[in-house]
Design brief:
The complex is a heterotrimer of chains A (308), B (274) and C (452). Chain A is mainly alpha-helical and 308 residues long. Chain A is built from 13 helices and 2 strands, in the order αββαααααααααααα. Classes of the chains: A mainly alpha (308), B mainly alpha (274), C alpha/beta (452). At the A-B interface, helix 1, helix 3, helix 4, helix 5 and helix 7 of A face helix 1, helix 4, helix 5, helix 6 and helix 7 of B.
C-alpha cells in the first residue's frame, strides 16, 4: 500500500475509489447492462416489439429443434466453422511465414511492415465494395487477368456461386487482416532472445527444421492469441458479409453466418418480421459458444506452453 | 552470411507479390477517382487521362463531407480521450490497491473483451431512448468508450503491475505528493500504453459504421462511414464520384498513419500481444 | 478466499438479472413521442415557406399555431416530389410544417422499428405494404383512418395493403407498382421483331435475339427479390391470373398446383436468356447491359422507368405491361401496392397529421405524384402525362392481378416469398430442382399459416 500521510487518511481512501468509478459506470451501463438485458430477453416471448410473457427456455428449444430455424442455424453454424478454418489457413499461416521472412536478413523491413498494415485502416464497406468489383465475373480484374494468362477456364462468378462465394469472402477477410497478423508474429519473434537462434544455428539447424523446431514453439504465445482472436472473429463475423452480400447471406444461403442470422431475427429482413426472443436466444447461444471455445483454446495452448 | 541467393530472391519475390496484392485494390480506388464517368466505365483498369480534382470537389459539395468529417473527428477524439482517461485511472487503481472486489471487477471487464457487443443492440437502443441520447453524438461516444474500456483497462493494469513501485516510493520520499508522482514519473512511462490504447480505439471507432447506422438518423450527425453508405445510394451509377468519395473517406486515417506509422504499428502489435 | 469471491460474484449476477427482469424494460409506448424534440438542427429546404398570408381554411377556432410534423420515408429519391407536394399542402395549411426525413430503403425497417419501439416515432410514416405494415398496425402503433375524408378517392382493393388484422384501415395507399417488361425499341426494329403479346411469343422473340448475339433479358440475380419479381411479371398467364389467386385465398389450391409449377418452369426456361453468371450480377450491372444495348429487355417494376430514362435519355424505351392469355386478348398486369402513409398513434398533432393524410387522397396530390415521379398514383382519376405510364395505367384498368408472392405470401419468418426467391437462386445455381423450389415454398407457407 502506498504510504499515506496520516490525517488525510480516510478522505484519501474514499477519494481513491473515484479512480475506478467512471470506468465501472460507463462499462456497466453501456456494455454490461445491455448484454444482461439481451440474455434476459431471450427468456421471454415477444409480440413484435413488445415483451410478452416469460417462456423459459422455449426460445432456445425452438431455435434448436424447430424448422426452419434449426436448419438455418446449422447452415450458418457450419459456415462459421468454415470461416475459422479457412481464415486460419489463409491468414495466420501465411502471416506467420511472412513474419519469418521479414524477420530474416532482408532490406526494407520498415517499408514492408508499413505497407502490409494499410488494409487494416480501410473501412469494411470500402473493402467489400472494391473486391466485389475485382471479382465481378465479366468486368472484374481477377477474371480478366485469368483470361489474359490463359487460365480463362478458371474464371468463375466468384461471389455468385454457392461453392465459391463463402471462401471468396473469407479470403478477402484474410487479405484485410494479413498484415496485422504478420506484425503480431513479427513482434513476438523480435521479443525472443537472439541467442536462442544463434544456439540453434550452431547446432546445425537450418531451413525448414529451423522453422518447425524453433520458430513455431517459440511463437506459441502469439499463436494462442491470434487463434483465439480468429475464432472469436469468425463466429462474430458480420460486417464484411453484410457489406458484400446483404443480410440474407446469398447466394442461396451459402454465405449465411450466425451474426447475419442474428441480424435478421433481431431486425427483420426487408420483407420479414422480427423475432426478438429468438434473436436474443441466438445471441446467448453465440455468447456460450465463444466463451466455451475460448476456454478450450486457452487450455490447449497453456498445456502446449508447459510441454515446452 | 550463408543465405543462398535463390532463397533471398524467393523471399523478395513473395514480399513483392504480397505488396502488390495489398495495394492493388486501393490503387484501383484512387486511380478511378480521378477519371471521368465515361472513362471509368470504359477503361477501369488503366491510368487516368488527367489528374483532375473535379470529382473530389463535386463529392465534397454534394455529400456534406465537411459535416461527416467533423463528426467523425469529434466522436473519435472524444472516445479515445475518454477511454484513455477512464481506463488508466481504473487500471492504476486495480493494480495498486488490493480491494476484495478487484478480481470480480477484472472478470467483468474480461467478459466484455470476449463477447460480441453487437448482439445487445436492442437493449442498448432502448437505453439510449430512456436517456434521450438517440440521434446525438453522445450516444456514439458512450458506446465506444464503454466498449473500449475492457481492453484498455487490461493494458493499463498490466502496465502498472510491471511498473516498479520503487520509483514511486523514492519519488515520494523526495517529497512529491501523489499527483506529482503521477505526472512526473508515471505519466511519461505510460506513453507506450497510451499510444496502444489510443490507436486501437481510434481505428476501431473511426471506421465503425454499425452503431452510427442504428443510432444516427439526422444527416447533420452522420460520421464518415455512414456517409459512405449514402454515397452508394446516391451515386450508384456515378462511379467516378463514388471512388472519389471512398478515397476521401479513407484519407484521414491513411494520412494519420503516414505520419505516425511506427507508433501505429508498435502500438497495435504490442497491444494485441499483451 | 476464492469461495467468497465466487459467491459474491454469483450473487451479483443473480441480483442484476433479477433487477433487469423486473424492470419491465420491454414495453413500448413510452410516452416520449411525436415530434422530434429539438434533435433537428438545420431546417431542411424541403419544408416549404408558407405563402404570404393565405388564410387557412376556416375550420380552426383560433389562429393556428405553428406545428411541425416529422415524416419518415424510404424514398430519398422522391424528395423533389415531396417538396412540391408539401408546398401545395402549405397553400391551404401554411401553419403545418412538414419535415421530410427519408432513410435508405434497406435500413428503413430497422430505423422505423427502433423509432416505434422506443416511443420516439415520427408523426407520419411510410408504411411497408401488406404483411409488414400489418404487423405494425397490429402492434398498436397507428391511428385507424377509417373515418378519413377522401378515402373514396382511392380504389378499394388497394386498402388491402394497409389494413390491420382487425380489418381497419391504417394507411393511405400511395402508389401502385406493376411488374413490367421494358424493351429497347430500336433493337427490336433492327431485328424486325414484333412486340410479343403472349408467353410463347416472348420465348420466340428471346430466342431470335439470342441467336443474333444479343442478351435477350438483362436480369440480375444477386439480390434474390429480383428473381421473384421477374416471376411475378411473367407468371400470371401460366396459372390463369385471378382465378388461381381466388382459389389460393379460399384454400382450394396452393403452390403445388400444377398451374403454379408451370409458372416456375417458365422461370427455368428463361434461364438461358439471362446473362451468363447472372446470379452474381447485381441490378445496377444488369441495367448497364440494357443501357449499352447488349441486352434487349429488362424486367422490373414500372418504377424503374424514371431511372432508365434519366440514365439513357436517348434510348427508345417501350413496355410490355404483361402477357395476354392468347393473342388479341388484354394483357394481364401484375400489380401491388408499394406503400402507404400512416399516422403514428403517439403523435402530438393528430389533427394536423390527418389533414395531411386527407391531402394525400386528393387528385391534386395524385397529379403531383404522378407527374413528378412518373409513377402510378393510387388516387382515382389521375391522368398520367407520361405516355408509358399512361399505357400501363390503361392496361391495369382493363385487367390486373396481384403480385401473388408479395401480396399473399408475405407472412412468416422467413417469409414464404423470401424462401421462394432464395430457392429460385438455388435452382439457377443447379442446387435444387423446380419441384424442390415448390416444395420449399409450400413448406414455408404451411409454417406461416400454422403459426398464425
Amino acid at each position: 500500500m502506498a504510504l499515506v500521510r496520516s490525517g488525510k487518511k480516510s478522505l484519501k481512501r474514499h477519494l481513491v475509489h473515484l479512480f475506478l468509478l467512471p470506468a465501472v459506470v460507463l462499462y456497466g451501463v453501456f456494455q454490461l447492462y445491455p448484454l444482461l438485458s439481451a440474455v434476459v430477453n431471450s427468456f421471454f416471448s415477444w409480440k413484435g416489439f413488445v415483451r410478452d410473457s416469460f417462456v423459459g427456455l422455449n426460445n432456445f428449444i425452438t431455435l434448436m429443434t424447430k424448422e426452419p430455424y434449426t436448419s438455418t442455424f446449422m447452415n450458418a453454424f457450419k459456415h462459421n466453422w468454415v470461416f475459422f478454418v479457412v481464415n486460419f489457413a489463409s491468414e495466420l499461416v501465411p502471416a506467420f511465414l511472412l513474419a519469418i521472412i521479414v524477420y530474416s536478413r532482408i532490406k526494407g523491413k520498415e517499408f514492408f511492415k508499413t505497407v502490409f498494415f494499410v488494409p487494416k485502416l480501410l473501412s469494411v464497406v470500402i473493402i467489400g465494395f472494391l473486391f466485389s468489383l475485382i471479382l465481378n465475373p465479366a468486368s472484374g480484374a481477377l477474371n480478366k487477368l485469368l483470361k489474359a494468362i490463359g487460365l480463362g477456364f478458371m474464371a468463375q462468378p466468384w461471389l455468385g456461386d454457392t461453392d465459391t462465394a463463402l471462401v471468396s469472402i473469407i479470403l478477402i477477410n484474410s487479405w484485410a487482416g494479413l498484415g496485422f497478423s504478420m506484425l503480431i508474429f513479427l513482434a513476438n519473434l523480435q521479443s525472443i532472445d537472439k541467442e536462442i537462434f544463434e544456439a540453434a544455428r550452431i547446432d546445425g539447424a537450418s531451413g525448414w527444421k529451423l522453422v518447425t523446431k524453433i520458430y513455431v514453439p517459440l511463437s506459441m504465445n502469439a499463436f494462442m492469441i491470434m487463434t483465439i482472436l480468429t475464432f472469436i472473429g469468425s463466429f462474430e463475423t458480420f460486417d464484411l458479409i453484410y457489406a458484400m452480400q446483404g443480410s440474407s447471406g446469398g447466394p442461396y444461403y451459402s454465405t449465411d453466418v450466425l451474426g447475419l442470422y442474428f441480424y435478421r431475427l433481431a431486425f427483420g429482413s426487408s420483407d420479414g418480421s422480427q423475432a426478438i426472443g429468438l434473436g436474443s436466444a441466438l445471441a446467448v447461444v453465440l455468447f456460450l459458444i465463444i466463451a466455451a471455445a475460448t476456454a478450450v483454446l486457452m487450455f490447449y495452448f497453456k498445456r502446449k506452453d508447459f510441454e515446452r | 552470411m550463408r543465405t543462398k541467393w535463390y532463397v533471398q530472391t524467393f523471399k523478395y519475390a513473395i514480399l513483392a507479390f504480397i505488396t502488390f496484392l495489398v495495394l492493388y485494390p486501393m490503387y484501383i480506388m484512387i486511380l478511378n477517382s480521378f477519371k471521368t464517368r465515361l472513362e471509368v466505365a470504359v477503361s477501369p483498369l488503366s491510368l487516368p487521362k488527367s489528374f483532375s480534382l473535379a470529382n473530389y470537389i463535386s463529392v465534397w459539395e454534394r455529400a456534406n463531407f465537411s459535416d461527416y468529417f467533423l463528426n467523425s473527428v469529434i466522436v473519435s477524439g472524444a472516445s479515445v480521450f475518454l477511454v484513455i482517461l477512464v481506463s488508466s485511472l481504473a487500471g492504476f487503481y486495480l493494480s495498486r490497491f488490493e480491494f476484495p472486489w478487484n478480481p470480480i471487477i477484472l472478470f467483468f471487464f474480461m467478459i466484455g473483451l470476449m463477447l460480441p457487443m453487437k448482439l445487445a443492440i436492442i437493449p442498448l437502443y432502448m437505453l439510449m431512448i430512456k436517456l434521450h441520447l438517440v440521434d446525438t453524438l453522445y450516444a456514439l461516444v458512450a458506446i465506444y468508450v464503454g466498449g473500449g474500456i475492457p481492453f484498455a483497462v487490461f493494458i493499463f493494469y498490466g502496465f502498472f503491475r510491471t511498473l516498479s513501485k520503487e520509483l514511486e516510493n523514492s519519488a515520494r520520499l523526495d517529497g512529491c505528493n501523489d499527483f506529482q508522482v503521477y505526472t512526473r514519473i508515471v505519466l511519461p512511462l505510460m506513453k507506450p500504453s497510451i499510444s496502444i490504447v489510443g490507436i486501437v480505439n481510434l481505428v476501431r471507432v473511426w471506421n465503425d459504421f454499425f452503431y452510427p447506422l442504428i443510432f444516427i438518423r439526422d444527416d447533420d450527425y452522420r460520421t464518415i462511414p455512414l456517409g459512405m453508405l449514402t454515397l452508394f445510394g446516391e451515386f450508384d451509377t456515378e462511379w467516378n464520384l463514388l471512388f472519389a468519395g471512398l478515397t476521401l473517406s479513407s484519407l484521414p486515417l491513411l494520412i494519420a498513419f503516414v505520419f505516425a506509422s511506427k507508433t501505429f504499428i508498435d502500438g497495435l502489435t504490442t497491444g494485441a500481444v499483451k | 478466499m476464492k469461495w467468497n469471491k465466487l459467491s459474491i460474484f454469483v450473487l451479483f449476477l443473480i441480483l442484476s438479472i433479477a433487477i433487469i427482469g423486473c424492470s419491465g424494460s420491454g414495453s413500448a409506448g413510452n410516452q416520449n413521442s411525436g415530434t422530434s424534440s429539438g434533435s433537428n438542427t438545420t431546417p431542411q429546404p424541403a419544408t416549404s415557406q408558407p405563402t404570404t398570408s393565405q388564410p387557412a381554411t376556416p375550420q380552426n377556432e383560433a389562429p393556428p399555431e405553428e406545428v411541425e410534423l416529422v415524416m419518415y420515408s424510404w424514398r430519398a429519391e422522391d424528395r423533389g416530389m415531396y417538396e412540391k407536394a408539401i408546398a401545395k399542402f402549405n397553400e391551404t395549411y401554411p401553419h403545418i410544417q412538414i419535415d421530410f426525413q427519408p432513410y435508405q430503403s434497406t435500413e428503413y425497417n430497422t430505423i422505423l422499428t427502433n423509432a416505434l419501439m422506443s416511443g420516439s416515432a415520427p408523426d407520419i410514416l411510410q408504411l411497408r405494404p401488406y404483411a409488414s405494415g400489418r404487423s405494425i398496425a397490429d402492434n398498436g402503433y397507428l391511428l385507424p383512418l377509417d373515418n378519413l375524408l377522401g378515402l373514396e378517392h382511392i380504389n378499394e382493393q388497394y386498402f388491402e395493403a394497409a389494413k390491420g388484422s382487425d380489418g381497419k384501415i391504417y394507411g393511405v395507399p400511395l402508389t401502385l407498382n406493376s411488374g413490367t417488361i421494358f424493351y429497347n425499341k430500336d433493337l427490336f426494329e433492327a431485328h424486325s421483331l414484333n412486340v410479343p403479346e403472349t408467353w410463347e411469343e416472348f420465348v420466340q422473340v428471346s430466342q431470335t435475339l439470342k441467336d443474333n448475339g444479343i442478351i435477350p433479358i438483362a436480369q440480375g440475380g444477386r439480390a434474390a427479390y429480383l428473381l421473384s419479381l421477374t416471376h411475378g411479371a411473367i407468371a400470371p398467364t401460366a396459372y390463369n391470373g385471378n382465378e388461381f389467386v381466388d382459389k389460393v385465398l379460399s384454400g382450394q389450391a396452393n403452390l403445388t398446383d400444377p398451374a403454379f409449377v408451370e409458372s416456375v418452369k417458365r422461370m427455368e426456361t428463361l434461364g438461358q436468356f439471362f446473362p451468363q453468371d447472372f446470379v452474381a450480377l447485381d441490378d445496377a450491372s444488369a441495367q448497364t447491359l440494357f443501357y449499352t444495348g447488349e441486352a434487349a429487355m429488362y424486367i422490373n417494376g414500372d418504377y424503374r422507368l424514371a431511372t432508365l430514362e434519366s440514365t439513357a435519355p436517348d434510348m427508345n424505351i417501350g413496355v410490355i405491361p404483361g402477357f395476354a392469355a392468347a393473342k388479341g386478348q388484354d394483357p394481364i398486369v401484375t400489380t401491388w401496392v408499394d406503400g402507404s402513409y400512416a399516422v403514428s398513434k403517439d403523435t402530438k398533432h393528430p389533427e394536423e397529421a390527418l389533414l395531411f393524410m386527407e391531402f394525400m387522397t386528393t387528385e391534386a396530390f395524385g397529379q403531383i405524384f404522378t407527374d413528378e415521379l412518373n409513377r402510378l398514383s393510387a388516387v382515382k382519376g389521375v391522368q398520367p402525362k407520361h405516355p408509358i405510364v399512361n399505357q400501363i395505367t390503361a392496361a391495369i384498368a382493363k385487367s390486373t392481378t396481384p403480385y401473388l408472392l408479395l401480396v399473399h405470401f408475405g407472412e412468416g419468418e422467413p417469409t414464404t416469398k423470401t424462401v421462394f426467391e432464395n430457392a429460385l437462386q438455388g435452382m439457377y445455381l443447379g442446387e435444387i430442382t423446380v419441384d424442390q423450389v415448390i416444395q420449399q415454398a409450400q413448406e414455408a407457407a404451411d409454417r406461416a399459416a400454422g403459426s398464425e
